[in-house]
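Hello,

I think I submitted the pyridoxal-5'-phosphate job twice by accident. Can you confirm which output corresponds to this input? Input:
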Amino acid sequence: MNLAKFPRVRLAHLATPLELMPRLTEHLGGPEIWIKRDDCTGLSTGGNKTRKLEFLMAEAQAQGADMVMTQGATQSNHARQTAAAAAKLGMDCHILLEDRTGYNHENYKYSGNVLLDHLHGATMEHRGPDLDMNAEMEAVADKFRAEGRNVYTIPGGGSNATGALGYVNCAFEMMNQFVTMGLNVDHIVHATGSAGTQAGLITGLKAMNAGIPLLGIGVRAPKPKQEENVYNLAVKTAEKLGCPGVVAREDVMANTDYVGPGYGMPGDDTLEAIDIFARTEAILLDPVYSAKGGAGLIDLIRKGHFKKGERIVFLHTGGAIGLTGYTHCFDVPK
Ligand SMILES: *Cc1c(COP(=O)(O)O)cnc(C)c1O
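Support: Only one job matched these inputs. Its output is below.
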């Protein structure tokens, strides 16, 4: 397989750092915990969507697009990174934001990612919950096309086979770091949502025959649905890469016990994970994704699922700018 044959535009600061978290390791008293800092990809406060956008935006450019469109929840990190990539590459960006939480707080609606969308010059429309958002987006895109615009649409989370190539690339990058640093890693853990991150990672890991299990901690869908989404996308990604069949169904593992009240709504364990990471390692997790991943990691260590003597890599997928949209969840003394 040859990742270099796909068009790619450089947007991320790579390789992202891979660091030991000694105080978190000590605090939890279980396995040695490392962190892969994809919160430090650089573009407009970073995050995992930037790796996907390197391949997606290159495809948009190749198709001569003058406008990109995408969709996501109000505090979508993906929408913000897409708006930033479009600004950097001189394209217009239009985004559809879905109200998935019903939150009415000012900061939720106008701060965090929404503020950055605006600063990058993106235009926005809003939608209520429970619509087919990709279909809504295509309908709006067709209106722009009728006006003569060349619109490239990106699915929610940038999760198609093109976007997933960004996480095939991350799998290669991590393996290279593990080998260079002499780290024998037992598990990789990360938050999984629209499936592109996990699908790309598992495809890359399996294509290298890395032998390292990957666990996605779900943020929305129940386990069977989440695993099916990841598996289906991994199959397409492997085909695109020219290595069909490298991913087996049982390679795709998701744990969806940490979704809490629902997508975009933190539970007590989500907030505890934010607190623990911030106080032990000065790492900022976000309430929608990475802190649910962190909550899963913490609980699975407390339960003895991950044990002393093992080495875990937690992939930090970013999103901390969203904290400023969630101030209503924290008791800051007045
Ligand atoms: C989108 C996102 C994820 C989930 O990645 P998917 O590829 O959508 O599964 C995890 N963490 C953060 C911060 C995200 O923005």
